[in-house]
Write a structure and sequence with these properties.
53% of the residues lie in helices and 21% in strands. With 223 residues, the chain is of the alpha+beta class. α6 packs antiparallel against α7 (188-219). The structure holds ligand 0O2.
Length: 223
């Protein structure tokens, strides 16, 4: 520590353990850097997959990629729900979705192709796979979820970092972002009615995704 803690402690009405607070604060900054680096690794891998598709098949399976670090509020809420203290170690041990990458594809086949080509990378380990496309959630939610780990090389050595990857079509993403807003609606009666309507939309969107893919296959004589 290169400054005098007694200065802070002399103005510390709530008796906070300043040394512990600073230690934890730096711990969180380092975590931020670690998960951000893991996201960059995954983004690069996805870019390479997409570029190879372009040079081999003259088309891109990926429409776009969005990444995010889970917000501090969301992290705190999730740890609290699990009854776990909010520390940097608890985050590493218990949460696998701090680093999140969302891959938006054109067609359903592209989702599985991207997941397959990612799985061929021998520095990636698959921890969990949830196929909400083959098995949609009761509300109609569809996406392929993967929890993978990637290595991140720091001055202190190699760290294995989990990243949650959600892969979905443009249409599934359109649906999920509207459905997400439902969670912030407090009027239960309206929410139930809208949830029903969204469920119908999810089925319509799935039919459209399948038809678009079939048209694409026929146009390119893939069937
Ligand atoms: P945020 O803000 O996106 O991070 P787990 O993480 O395994 O403890 P869970 O719910 O079993 O919790 O994981 P799951 O089913 O893999 O879902 C994780 C993420 O998928 C969610 O993150 C959402 O982003 C998305 N998701 C899952 N179900 C739905 C759904 O019904 N509607 C929408 N719009 N998105 C969904 P978080 O943690 O909720 O929040």
């Amino acid at each position: 520590m290169d400054f005098d803690l007694s200065i802070i402690n002399s103005h510390n009405p709530y008796n906070i353990d300043v040394e512990k607070f600073i230690e934890q604060f730096y711990g969180f900054i380092q975590l931020n850097h670690l998960y951000d680096s893991a996201i960059r690794q995954v983004e690069t891998k996805l870019e390479i997959i997409d570029n190879e598709f372009q040079s081999t098949f003259q088309r891109n399976p990926i429409h776009n990629v969005q990444s995010r670090l889970k917000s501090p509020q969301s992290i705190a809420q999730k740890l609290q729900n699990k009854g776990i203290p909010i520390t940097a170690n608890a985050i590493i041990e218990h949460l696998h979705d701090i680093a999140g990458v969302r891959v938006i594809c054109h067609y359903i086949d592209d989702i599985y192709a991207v997941a397959h080509y990612l799985s061929l990378h021998d520095d990636i380990t698959l921890l969990n796979r949830k196929d909400y496309i083959k098995h949609p959630k009761p509300n109609g939610y569809r996406s392929l979820h993967l929890i993978i780990t990637v290595p991140v090389y720091l001055s202190t050595g190699k760290k294995i970092v989990p990243v949650e990857i959600q892969i979905r079509t443009i249409a599934m993403d359109f649906w999920a972002s509207l459905e997400h807003q439902l969670h912030y609606k407090s009027d239960n009666e309206v929410s139930d009615e809208l949830a029903q309507q969204l469920k119908v939309c999810a089925e319509t969107i799935n039919d459209t995704d399948l038809k678009m893919q079939s048209i694409y296959h026929r146009l390119n004589k893939m069937d």
